[in-house]
Amino acid sequence: MLQVRPFRGMRDILPGELEVRSAALATIRATYRAHGFLEIETPIVETLDALYASGAGENTKLMFKVLKRGERLDVANAASEDDLADAGLRFDLTVPLARFYAVNQSKLPKPFAAMQIGPAFRAERPQRGRLRQFVQADADILGEPGWIAEVQLLIAATAALHQLGLEGFQLRINDRRAVEAVLKHLGIPRERWRGVVVALDKLDKEPPSAVRSEMVASGVEEHRADRLLEVLASMQEGDAMLPILARHGVADEVLERLSAIESHVRSSVRDTEVIVDPLIVRGIDYYTSTVFEIVHPRWGTSIGGGGRYDTLLAHFGVDEPACGISLGFERVLALLDELGIRVGESHRRLTLIFDPRTQVAEALRQARHFRRDGFLVTLLPHDRTARSPIKRLALAAEELKAEGSQDSFWHFTLGADTEPRLLLH
Q1: Residue 216 predicted with pLDDT over 90
Q2: Domains detected in the chain
Q3: How much is the mean pLDDT over the chain?
Q4: CA within 20 to 30 Å of 143's CA: 1, 159, 207, 314, which one?
Q5: In Å, how far are 110, 187, 324, 337, 382 from 320, measured between CA atoms?
Q6: Alpha-carbon span 289 to 287, nearest angstrom
Q7: 3 state SS for the chain
Q8: Residue 79 has pLDDT above 80, yes or no
């Protein structure tokens, strides 16, 4: 028999759940818009040249590639996989934004505050909060080199989470140059830094022993890997973090930038911890300096993150600084559900039951009337000789409630009722 399940790592979304998702996305959009961000949209397919040029590191290994079409698909003479493909599904929204800006910069304000919300695709192992198709909600500022960009992004993302009803999360910030200064201070060769950063980015997912093994496999000497983990573990959170980083050779410019971001964000957002955390590195190669993550004690990994990627646009012929943040929409929704936080407004849904042989015109007239009164109206033709549909409607309403719908459900039968009757609240 034909297997009709969705492709592994992708999922169907039922009506009640989609209502919750739509309400959450509307909240994020409205919040970003209130902070001055302009919404754009880019294709889900980009050329392999654009995706590989991004410096996105591990993500390029997780691409869903798109075969060449027609005469260009020459299977017989292909020497490698890339000879068969010329495009791929986007693995994030940042690379498409960089390409978009390079093409359209003359039509855009400077600096350009952009928001982009849409699906991305990665061929990774599906797990809790990590799918192969997932939605990202991004805000980026292009053309602003100063730390005010980071401050604006962190405030906007925090405001969006607060508007969704989420509390108790932390903003953890760092600068890649601080990590690199520590690596240099410990005598780790520059050519090993990329492998170290990729390994350190997994400290929130894997035990230190596994991270140590990955660093050693990348060419770092065992005693230096041990010393690095020891130094990072010894760094305690709090106001003393910047002096500790200074003792490990981190430049004043980096420390001053971190201090400014930390103090201004802390004074601008409510009930949110802002912490300088040297373990925040972000594993994507295109990040150049400031990096940050949003974490919540009830979720094992970050629910959002980003940083400054000042050299990415140069791959597309534009020499402009850039910085961005992304909310992991699937993780945020799952966390809201786990915490029992409801998103969106409630509506009154009415099923109008009528006899299709004699009552069509009256049903259409009544539907217009109820919609003017604020009901969301569904028409249900029903043969009077058949079993009443009320029980079936009640079961469907309960299913929508289980999916997260906050609506109340009503029914009205032409010729039998004078007022709508409540089915399920």
Answers
A1: no
A2: 15-338 (3.30.930.10), 348-424 (3.40.50)
A3: 88
A4: 159
A5: 10, 32, 13, 39, 63
A6: 6
A7: CCCCCCCCCCCCCCHHHHHHHHHHHHHHHHHHHHCCCEECCCCCEEEHHHHHHCCCHHHHHHCCEEECCHHHCCCCCCCCHHHCEEEEECCCCHHHHHHHHHHHHHHCCCCEEEEEEEEEECCCCCECCECCEEEEEEEEEECCCCCHHHHHHHHHHHHHHHHCCCCCCEEEEEEHHHHHHHHHHCCCCHHHHHHHHHHHCCCCCCCHHHHHHHHHHCCCCHHHHHHHHHHHHHCCCCCCHHHHHHHCCCCHHHHHHHHHHHHHHHHHCCCCEEEECCCCCCCCCCCCCEEEEEECCCCCCCCEEEEECCCCHHHHCCCCCEEEEEEEHHHHHHHHHHCCCCCCCCCEEEEEEECCCCCHHHHHHHHHHHHHCCEEEEEEECCCCCCCCHHHHHHHHHHHHHCCCCCEEEEEECCCCCCCEEEEC
A8: no
Residue 39 φ/ψ, nearest 5 degrees: -85, 140
Query: What's the confidence (pLDDT) of residue 71?
Result: 64
Q: What DSSP letter does each residue of 7-33 carry, written as one string?
A: PTT-----HHHHHHHHHHHHHHHHHHH
Q: Find all residues with CB under 8 Å of 68, minimum gap 6, and list them.
A: 74, 84, 85, 86
Question: How much is the average pLDDT of 310-337?
Answer: 94
Residue 40 has phi, psi (to 5 degrees) of -130, 170
Q: What are phi and psi of 243, to 5 degrees?
A: -60, -35
- The answer to whether 115 and 138 have CB atoms below 8 angstroms apart is yes
Q: Which of 70-84, 173-187, 293-307 has the highest mean pLDDT?
A: 293-307
Instruction: Please give the full DSSP string across 270-312, using - where no structure is assigned.
Output: SS-EEEE-TT---S-TT--SEEEEEE-TTSSS-SEEEEE-TTT
User: What is the pTM (predicted TM-score) of this model?
Assistant: 0.86
Tokens 């405001």 — which residue? 159
